[in-house]
Every structure is written in structure tokens, then in C-alpha cells.
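Pinned message: reference record for 2-oxoisovalerate dehydrogenase subunit alpha
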Amino acid sequence: MSFRYTSRIIRAQRLLGTQTCLNGSRTAFIPPVWQRCRGVASTPNAEKVLFPGALNSEFTDKLDFIQPSQEKAIPTYRVMNQYGEIIDKEIGVETEDDEALLIYKNMVKLSIMDLLMFEAQRQGRLSFYMVSAGEEGISIGSASALHPSDVAFCQYREAGVYLQRGFQLSDFMNQLFANAKDNGLGRNMPVHYGSKELNIHTISSTLATQIPQAAGAAYALKMQNIQNPDQPSRVAVCYFGEGAASEGDFHAALNIAATRQVPCIFICRNNGYAISTPTSDQYRGDGIASRGAGYGIATLRVDGNDIFAVRRATKTARKLALENGGQPILIEMMAYRVGHHSTSDDSFAYRQRVEVEDWKRRDNPITRLRKWLEGRQLWDDAAEKELRSSTRKQVLRAFEAAEKEKKPSIRNAFEGVWEDLTAEQRAHVKEMRDIIARYPKEYDVDGFEGGVKGLDDLLQENK
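Predicted structure (C-alpha cells):
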């Protein structure tokens, strides 16, 4: 069936008020309120626009251009102030004490891993790394409010999502060293994690590609949710920075998510900088949240340093995303990128060191949650010292173990694309085998699992 023919069917079904699912069943199609309108031309006494491109807009005889700079900025939702005090005590935090302690420990673990891995890269033991300093609350807080079956698409500063879902320290280290125990078998850059078991797609270096992928996956989940009403409904969640929102992928993804009404939560980490570009050079509008309304998407701006606000916003967004068959949600979570963009960056070349130190001292998600825990007598200096000491030892043990593992077999350089080796690939394998045999000192492969035998086995299996 052609795309054009399918589109005509969908348009006809919308006119009839139904839409057909993949299993052949029909469900009611409910357009947004602002799209509901009589399908007739404007009458002489009409008070609202009836053109199909801008429904329910009132006529006016005043020529006033909208001046965004003169409008109030979108407010930022928070539950707890920077002193760890709950603003609305009647509503509270909706988080049990034990859960808050677990979240805090995970944030500390992430920050310690970041610090040690950054130092390891500077020592030449890792080739690349990216820290999450100042943004731990966004990834860990949002992940704690999602269902484990929800499908996640991360960028490269969401190690906290993996950690909260059960990714082990050994999993992180194996990927960073690209050793034989790495899920990706050394085929990806460091910090580009992935886990099929945890329903998290592998991170891609190419900026913003995960955003339209998430919209497409959410459409598939919408069909699954409809076809399997007895199973728990799932959503897709997509993480990206405000820099990625400048890519065309962002706009295409939000538009298709809105028009298809898919259950997808788009979470933008607005940390103030896209690599070396501050937000003042990225856009003139009111952040990223202002774009959600333009696409007809329910939108919220949240204080990313407030773990309880992040959790409540994500939990509510998930509920909304599953209503009426599905709808997209955009959440802009505000933070400050304390660390450099990556180990390949020196952020003090484009921002003042005092600015960074001020943010580190004034407010961050870890210290804010710690103040709340101390206020409830759930935490103290002794517990903090013990946690940091034991966590540091755990990270170093996992690091040292992963560093000693061998690299994946060389055969993995040729596998994973075609089911069987092509004739051209076989020629490449033979050529590599010949070069290694002729120059053993220049190409020492003992550090790879199986050594040169990996290539021999591959050729034998693909005769």
C-alpha cells in the first residue's frame, strides 16, 4: 500500500471520527480542542477564523505584532528551594525517605565516577569522557519516575539514567575500555552506552538523531498499547541538550510527534552551553519550552536542581502522555553545566572560572537534596564520609578490573552488518591476516581475545 494511499485513508477516517489500528480494530480519533472547527468558509458575521490553517483564532481590527521580548517568561516549576526547604508543605515531595536516600546515593556515585574517570582520561588511561556535574538530578530524578519498561533514548550526559535503571559500575567501565565484556564489543566511542535489557537505546555521537527516532518508537508503542490493552502501557522518553534543539531533527521530531499524537516525553537539559556556545548565541526566544506550544505540545519548565520537581514533573508527564491514546510532552529542565563539555574541551576559554565556581558553591542538585535529608535527620557528615569513601573504592575496583580485560576479538571489526561475510569482506579479512603475519612486532594482537586466531576462525566459518 503506497504512502499517499495510506494518507488518504487516514484523512478519510479522521473525517469519520475514527482511526484504524495495525490489528484492524478502530478507535475514536479525538483532535485537540484548538483543531475542532466547522469545515465551512467564514461567514460575514463570524468572530473567529475558520481557515483550516489557524482554527479558532478571533478576528481583530488592531494591528499588533506579537513581541516575545515584551511577554512574561515561562515560569520554572520547583518543589524545593536551594536551601532544601519544601515550598508547599501540604503537597510535600511524594517521595519516601528510603527512595530519597537511594536517589541521593546514586547521584553521589555518578559524581564520584565522573571525577575519577575524568582524571583517568587526563592520565591517558581512557581516550575520552564526558561528565554530568550539575545535571545529576535531571537524569537520575526523571529515570526514577519512569517505568522500567519505558523506552529511553539518551544523548551523552545521561549516565544517571543507566545508573538508576540498574547499569552496573562494571558495565560502565567495560564500555569505557571497549574490552571483550563491552555490550558493543568496542564498536563505539567511550560514554556511548547502550542496554537492551534496560530498554535504553545505544547513544549516538551524531547530535539530535535520537529525537526523531524516539518519536518513531513512540508511534510503535502507541500501536502496541492499543493492541495489548491487558499489558502495562509504555512511553518513549528522549533526552537532549538545548544545543541539539537547534538541529532540524528536533523540529521534525516534535512536529511528527504532535500530529501523530504519540506517547513520548521529550526532556531537554538546558544547561546554558552547547559545547562552547552560550544560549545567548543559540536562540532569542524564551528557551526551549516556548517551542513546545508552537507545535501544540503540552509543555513545562522545571528547576533541574530540584530532584523532587523533576520527579513529579516526569511522573505527571508520563500520565499525560498516555491519555486519550497518547500525546507528546515537552519538559525543559534548567541546569548549569559545571564541567567542561568533554575531556576534549577547555570551557574556561569561553566562560569565567568564577562563574563556574559560583554555581558549584551556590546551588546544585546533590547539595540541595543533602540539605533536605539533613533537615529530616536522615543524613549527617559521618554518613557522607562513609558513602564517598566506599563508593570511591567500588569505582576504582571496577575500573581496575575492566582495564585488565582483553579487547574484543578482531573478528568483530568485520561482523555485525551482514549475516554472512561478503566476498569483499573476506578479501579484507585475508589482507589483514597477511599484514599481521608479516609484521608481528608492528601489529601485536595478543591483547585481543583469541589473537589472530579470531580471523582464522572467521574465515573458516565463512568458506
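Pinned by admin. Summary line: The first strand starts at residue 18 and ends at 20.
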